[in-house]
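Form 7-S
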Amino acid sequence: MNHEQLRAFVAVARLGSFRAAALHLNKTQPTVSASVKTLEQQFSILLFNRDAYRPSLTAEGEAFLSKAKSLLKQANELELLGHELAQGADPVLTLTLSPMCYLPPLVSQIQGFGQSHRNMQLTLGTGHLSGILEPLLKQQSDLALAPNIGLDGRFDFIEVSQITMITVAAKGYIEQAGGSIKHSELRTKPHILLADSGSEQPLDNVNVIAGGQRWFVNDYHLKKELLLAGMGWARIPEHMIKQELQQGLLVPLKVEQFASSSQVPIYLIKLRERADKEIVRAFWQSFSQ
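Output:
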């Protein structure tokens, strides 16, 4: 058993065919088939059922796949470490944050990590909706801090905080006489939303009113300024408008059949099968304690 045989096996399992695996690995299809066959012969097991048009994992193949992925990831991490040690360069960490994550405890934790890793080069970017996971999938970012939007089995994630989202408008912008505001009253008033920052498969915003007018901005600072100017209504992280709420410049809205106020979990996220650099593992561990 060797590294190339494991890579071939995992690629076939992930991509669903020997042809697709060969293209992905830049090898011939017979070479990939031979690698998988050698593994099967070495252990006297059948890793794939080949009766159908597409190969499917056997029970033995499913068990073998889990360990093979883990072993390949460890090998890739060791290779990364070797290159880092050989180059002697400062470790680089690239982090994508949802704009709602400028939360004092999270910022303080990032600051503390930076103080204990003074030779680290840190790149911080922001993303919203599909723009959070897209940099991870393209391996342009090591980690992300964001709510659960599109997380699935491709990712590892741990909850690190919670944020209160609250629906508000400028004082006097919408009349609210004790009860809930009806959707019909809000449809003609701009709902100020953050635009999807992704470029390939944009996602629609959640917590919107069907048929309502929508205005899009790129960050919460502009959203807040539009709210204060009485130009619309929106959900916004409560910690960003505490002073404006205390001064009565912005007021909470209660909207019928709408998440007027809610707790949103925030997760630290990474791509599951990507080899982690030492600095990435250290950052992850600092949030896991």
